[in-house]
């Protein structure tokens, strides 16, 4: 069966804009977030408190948070890799944070400048302090289905990494197909191992990139297994600057089109959302890669 309602975790302002060549002005980011809230999205990942040299596109995190008009009932989580990032997020008044680990050694090194063991040591005090401050903490795991340097990734390894991050005190585990290579059978295998490791499906989210056009099929496979939180990005913006061959995330419009058709509630107004992505595409100077945005607004 399918869930009656799905929570969309909108990552456009973070995963989307972190990968743009040009740095998007903070005014445009703020309007983007306002429009996404007005379109009915209830979780807007706003930015990352990472090293500004590593991701210059999000170097305006403090300014963005200071000027953000938070909509009622909307959550605005941010990424934090380490205690320095958490300090910055706390100073900005953030209430929800996400740590982001890797399932593979190579990507841990490239994305975090850490070994796998070192990544846990980095995250442990972040989660402990965030929880002590009453914050909610999500854990991402990247490269859950394949890694550009290491190839296929063993689902039992993904599950072990995810469990270890959850055991630090996180409330949700987002399984990332960073480079968009997964297919639905793999999704079933990874979700099976994650459940076997003791992480309940209620705590699991899926995060698909659409490089090979499989994101929607993979999402449907996950929904059939009981997942009810799906990450996506308005207009299909996105990618990771430290992952070779990563393209945009699953487009939120593509997801909403499918869920509307299936009678699964999201609370999202597709029309307003497509307008927002068309507006953003104009700001970025190129058309949205989302099939649904092109069909509705092309
Ligand atoms: P490092 O070079 O090892 O940092 O980078 P360090 O701990 O050695 O510190 C060096 C200096 O940086 C120090 O300053 C720190 O204070 C400063 P100094 O004492 O030399 O003057 N520093 C910071 N400054 C500001 N904010 C901070 C911060 N941390 C240290 N947070 C680090 C380690 C983790 C910082 C770096 O590797 C980094 O910023 N990485 C982030 C990469 C990133 O954002 N990638 C994209 C997000 S992940 C993703 O997109 C995947 C996802 O979507 C899921 C999926 O698709 O799979 C989530
Ligand atoms: Mg991503």
Automatic annotation (TrEMBL):
**Under which name does UniProt file this protein?**
Hydroxymethylglutaryl-CoA lyase
CDD domains in UniProt: DRE_TIM_HMGL (cd07938)
Cross-referenced InterPro entries: Aldolase_TIM, HMGL, PYR_CT
One Pfam family cited in the UniProt record for this chain:
HMGL-like
Q: Mind telling me which PANTHER family this protein's record contains? A: HYDROXYMETHYLGLUTARYL-COA LYASE (PTHR42738)
Give one GO molecular function term: metal ion binding
What residue intervals traverse the membrane? Answer: none
Q: Name one GO biological process term.
A: ketone body biosynthetic process
């Amino acid at each position: 069966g399918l869930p009656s309602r799905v929570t969309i975790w909108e990552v456009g302002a973070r995963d989307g804009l972190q990968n743009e060549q040009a740095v998007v002005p903070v005014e445009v980011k703020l309007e983007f977030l306002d429009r996404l809230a007005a379109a009915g999205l209830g979780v807007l990942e706003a930015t990352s408190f990472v090293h500004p040299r590593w991701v210059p596109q999000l170097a305006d995190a403090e300014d963005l948070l200071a000027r953000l008009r938070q909509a009622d009932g909307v959550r605005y989580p941010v990424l934090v890799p380490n205690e320095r990032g958490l300090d910055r997020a706390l100073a900005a008044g953030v209430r929800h944070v996400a740590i982001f680990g890797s399932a593979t050694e190579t990507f841990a090194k490239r994305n975090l400048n850490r070994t796998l063991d070192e990544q846990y040591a980095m995250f442990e005090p972040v989660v402990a302090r965030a929880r002590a401050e009453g914050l909610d903490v999500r854990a991402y795991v990247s490269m859950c289905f394949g890694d550009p340097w290491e190839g296929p990734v063993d689902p039992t390894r993904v599950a072990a990494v995810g469990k270890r991050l959850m055991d630090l005190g996180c409330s949700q585990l987002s399984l990332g197909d960073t480079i968009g290579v997964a297919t639905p059978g793999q999704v079933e295998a990874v979700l099976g191992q994650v459940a076997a490791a003791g992480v309940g499906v209620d705590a699991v989210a899926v995060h698909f990139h659409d490089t090979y056009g499989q994101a929607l099929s993979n999402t449907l496979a996950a929904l059939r297994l009981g997942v009810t939180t799906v990450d996506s990005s308005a207009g299909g913006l996105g990618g990771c600057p430290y992952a070779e061959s990563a393209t945009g995330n699953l487009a939120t419009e593509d997801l909403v089109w499918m869920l509307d058709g299936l009678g699964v509630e999201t609370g999202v107004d597709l029309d307003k959302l497509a307008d927002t992505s068309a507006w953003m595409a104009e700001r970025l100077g190129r058309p949205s890669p989302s099939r649904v945005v092109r069909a509705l607004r092309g």
